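Minutes, project check-in

Agenda point 3 was the complex the collaborators sent over. CS summarized: two entities, 341 residues total, and the question is how they sit relative to each other. Sequences were read into the notes so everyone works from the same version.
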Amino acid sequence: MINKDSVIRGVKSVTPLILGIIPFGLISGITAANTGLSIGMAMLMSIGIFAGASQLAVLQLLSNNVHMLVIIYTALIINLRMMIYSLSIAPHLQKVSTRWKALLAYSMTDQSYAISTVHFLNNPEEDTKSFFFGASITLWIIWQITTIVGFLMGSIIPSKLGLEFGIPLTFIAILFKGVVGWAGIIAIIVSALVSVLASQLPMNIGLVLAAIAGIAAGTISEIIFSKNRRASNNE
Amino acid sequence: MSNLHLILTIIIIGIGTFLFRFSFIYLYGKFKLPDWTQRSLRYVPPAVLSALIFPAILVKDNNIWISAQNPRLVAGIIAILIAWKTKNLLLTIAVGLGIFWLIVFI
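CS then shared the predicted structure for the full assembly.
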């Protein structure tokens, strides 16, 4: 059973992010058109993969005439972070049926994952399935519509607009939502340093390295801070 | 690339990406995870988001670009401050885009 109020809360939680998603969806449609894809192929990609950054990488590699195995490898490396999300949100979805798990997994994005996980930690009573569904499906619909619109508008929109900047802005907007204490800030800083220094590495390996370094730094800091607190309490 | 190859490429990426997303959501509870993973999971959102944000605002064409001329960096830093102080999603994105376009077009 779906809880309507929870779905609506999920929809509302991601609504402010739409402003940043629209430009990116448009870009993805425009790029697909400019790469010479048919609208059917563009939609197959948008629905079948449903992961913006990897879709843009695929289009770029297609126009460079790269071998298909390289394209597959690159796209999968970019999307590897989804496995970390899957592990992170899994405890909240234990009571959900397998069929729902599959649907929720398919529609999960960076934004719906981050917003929902933080919401579940702060609201343990929430109907997780319904909330997560509301958040993910909203972004899914926006993504498909903007891809089509972008494809049809094609070359009308100048590329100089820098529309893809909307996406890092949505990440910035949700960055501090779930951060608790200094350990979270340390995770952000370590991950930022590693990701920028490792950005020259091929195939987005830097992203995965940085995420792991940031998670480790946050966890270790938490352990150190809690030890210090215990030590000072004992004095 | 032929249409058939393209369809095949998209389907393989689609299935692989789905399996990444589905992996632990499906497997969780079927085996016991060590305690430290539980503790670490809280740091996944800030760490991954940070790793997505900073290269996007600091790196251009494979070079680190720290300068007041870099519109992404300036708009990004202001957006980070707004996000931190207000926690307002819409305001963060709107001001970030506004400042970015202001710098690009002036």
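Noted in discussion: Chain A touches chain B through 96 residues (CB under 8 Å).
Follow-up: revisit at the next meeting once the mutant set is ready.
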